Automatic annotation (TrEMBL):
Protein name, UniProt field: IclR family transcriptional regulator
Keyword set includes NAD: no
Lineage start: Bacteria, Pseudomonadati, Pseudomonadota, Betaproteobacteria, Burkholderiales
Limits of the IclR-ED domain: 75-259
InterPro entries found in the cross-reference section: GAF-like_dom_sf (IPR029016), HTH_MetabolicPath_Reg (IPR050707), Tscrpt_reg_IclR_C (IPR014757), Tscrpt_reg_IclR_N (IPR005471), WH-like_DNA-bd_sf (IPR036388), WH_DNA-bd_sf (IPR036390)
GO biological-process terms attached to the record: negative regulation of DNA-templated transcription
HTH iclR-type domain mapped to chain residues: 12-74
Keyword vocabulary terms for this entry: DNA-binding, Transcription, Transcription regulation
Gene Ontology terms, MF aspect: DNA binding; DNA-binding transcription factor activity
Gene3D superfamilies per UniProt: 3.30.450.40, Winged helix-like DNA-binding domain superfamily/Winged helix DNA-binding domain
Top-level division of the source organism's lineage: Bacteria
Length: 266
């Protein structure tokens, strides 16, 4: 029977091997097969295959069937990997977000999934707003109440969504019951409109809307949305003017991200 010290040592070795897999990815090598990872890390290929499967299940890697390779998921950004790319996006997004916030008199949030929450990378407010969301860069939002979380889940394919919801369930994620309640509506909204509205759920008396941002590394890597009090941001106003402009902001950001990525690869 293994002693506690032996078990602890085994767990440390597994962790070290998992980190070795993650460290094998570099800006110039965003996608790597199990064979390439085995060569890079010096680990046996069967071990690499088990580790990449576990890291994908945990949300740290994404698998591309087209490339037959793995890439880093956005949750790894919180550990410091590819932080420069994240800063590039924020630098590009910040002035566009402020322009949008001032135009529509709203608060605007850029976030990405991390574990069972959405972590906020940038938050801006209209300069003429009397009320602002109690959210700042670094804040974490529950998936269920936020338009950001619902847009993310609604944009996923069926298999990816099932795995994601199962992972949230195992983690006992807060707000999961509310998310399940709105999943079908989120899927419908994202398929038909490409945006998701959350009325009065993130904070009492506020409405919000969000879209997802696709990057060259991963679809729906980020979500960007806005919110304001219901007396200034009605669902009707969202549908008629705010959401269409938010889709325009999404297109501008994705074009900037793709151009920056192409320059780095050339």
């Amino acid at each position: 029977m293994a002693t506690s010290e032996q078990v602890a040592g085994s767990e440390v070795r597994v962790l070290a091997r998992g980190l070795a897999i993650l460290k094998a990815f570099e800006p110039d090598n965003r996608w790597r097969s199990n064979t390439e990872l085995a060569i890079s890390t010096g680990l046996p290929k069967p071990t690499v295959s088990r580790l990449t499967a576990n890291l994908t299940e945990a949300g740290y890697l994404v698998y591309s069937a087209e490339r037959a390779s793995y890439g880093l998921a956005t949750s790894v950004l919180t550990l410091g990997f590819l932080a420069a790319s994240n800063r590039d996006l924020i630098v590009v997004a910040r002035p566009l977000m402020q322009e949008f916030a001032d135009q529509h008199n709203v608060s605007v949030v850029l976030a990405s999934p991390d574990g069972d929450t959405m972590v906020c990378h940038e938050v801006v407010h209209s300069r003429s707003m009397l009320f602002t969301l109690r959210v700042r860069a670094g804040s974490r939002l529950q998936m269920g109440p936020s338009a950001l979380g619902r847009a993310l889940v609604g944009s996923m394919g069926d298999a990816e969504r099932d795995r994601f919801l199962a992972r949230l369930s195992r983690a006992g994620a807060p707000g999961l019951a509310e998310l399940h309640e709105h999943v079908k509506a989120a899927i419908t909204q994202m398929k038909q409109r490409q945006y998701c509205i959350a009325a009065g759920s993130l904070e009492q008396g506020t409405n919000g809307v969000a879209v997802v941002i696709d990057t060259p590394q991963q679809p729906h890597s980020y979500a960007i949305g806005c919110a304001a009090p219901t007396n200034t941001l009605s669902v009707t106003r969202i549908e008629s003017s705010v959401a269409p402009d938010l889709l325009g902001l999404k297109a501008r950001l994705e074009a900037e991200i793709n151009a920056t990525s192409a320059q780095k690869e050339s």
